[in-house]
Amino acid sequence: MPDLEETISHWRRRMAAGGLRDPEVLDELESHLRDAIEQRLNSRRDADPGKAFAEAALGIGPATELRHEFRKLKLIQHMKLETHKFLRAILVAIALFFVGLGLILPAAAKWRELGALDGYMIHFLIGAAMCVGSVAWGMRGVLEYRKVQ
Amino acid sequence: MLRKELVAASAEPLILSLLAQGESYGYAIIQEIKSRSKNRMAWTDGMLYPVLHRLERKGLIKSRWAEAENGRKRKYYSIKNDGKRALKKHHEHWSLVSSVLAGLRKEEYA
User: For A67, which residue in chain B has the nearest alpha carbon?
Assistant: First the structure.
C-alpha cells in the first residue's frame, strides 16, 4: 500500500486530469477528502488508511461528474456576459440598419431614376438579413441561458 | 431514500438554513445533512461544492480560507443578508407546498 500522502497527491492529479483544473476547487476537494479520511480513521481503531481513502474518494465522486457541474456554473456566468454582449450587438445592428437605410434611400431614389432598383434591393435585403441574424443570435443566447439556469 | 430531483431542489434551502445557524465548511455541512435526514438524503459529497459555489456567485453566501483546529486549511462558508432573504422565500415556498400536500392528504382520508 503506497503512502497516504502519495495516494492523495495521485488522486489530486487524477482529478485535474479529469478536467478539474481550478486549484482552489482542488484544494477544497482535497480538504474534504482529508476530513473524510480522518473521520474514518478516528472512528475505527483498526481502520485501514487505504480503505478509508477509497471510501472517501468514492464519496466525492468522479472528476467527470464534478467537471460537468462546475462547467454548468461557468456556462451560466459566461452566458450572463454573452447575453449582455448579444443584446448590445442587436441594438448596434438595428441602429446601423436604420443609419444605412437613411443613406441608401436617397441614393436609391436616384438609382430608380437610373433604372438601378435591383442594386438597392440587394443592399436592403443584405441589411435586413444581417439585422434578423443578429436578433436570432441574441435570442438564442438568451434562450440557452434560461435553459441552463 | 429521497428522489434525486427532490434532493437537488432542497439543496439550496438546506444549505442556507445550516449556514444561517453559523459558519461551516463542506464536510461538516454534508455530515449534518446526513445525520439530520438519518442518511436518507443521498448527497454525493463532491456535488455539494458546485452548489456552494453557485450560491456564492449569486451573492447569497461568502467564503474564506482559514486554518482549522487540526492545522489544515479549510474553506468556511457563511450566509449573507441576501442569503437570509432568499432563505425566507424558500421557507414560504416550502411551507406552501407542505400545507397544500397536507390539506390534500387530509381530504383523502376524510
Answer: B50
Residue B25 CA to residue B13 CA, distance in Å, equals 16
Strands lying side by side in the sheet with B61-67:
B24-25, B73-79, B61-67
Q: How far is CA A94 from CA A88, A97, A104, in A?
A: 10, 5, 15
The pTM of the whole model exceeds 0.90: no
What pLDDT shows up at residue A145? Answer: 59
Cα-based angle A50, B29, B88 (whole degrees, multiple of 5): 165
Q: Does the beta-carbon distance from A36 to B27 stay under 8 Å?
A: yes
Question: Given a cut of 60, is residue A1 above it in pLDDT?
Answer: no
Alpha-carbon gap: A138 to the closest alpha carbon of chain B (Å)? 23
| Nearest residue in chain A measured CA to CA from B67 | A31
Interchain contact, A60 vs B44, CB within 8 Å: yes
pLDDT at position A33, please?
95
Q: What is the number of helices (H) and of strands (E) in chain B? A: 4, 3
| Cross-chain Cβ contact A70/B57 below 8 Å | no
Whole-angstrom CA distances from B80 to A56, B65, B88, B108 are 30, 17, 13, 42
Contact B46 A73 (CB under 8 A): no
Lookup: cell for B36: 439530520
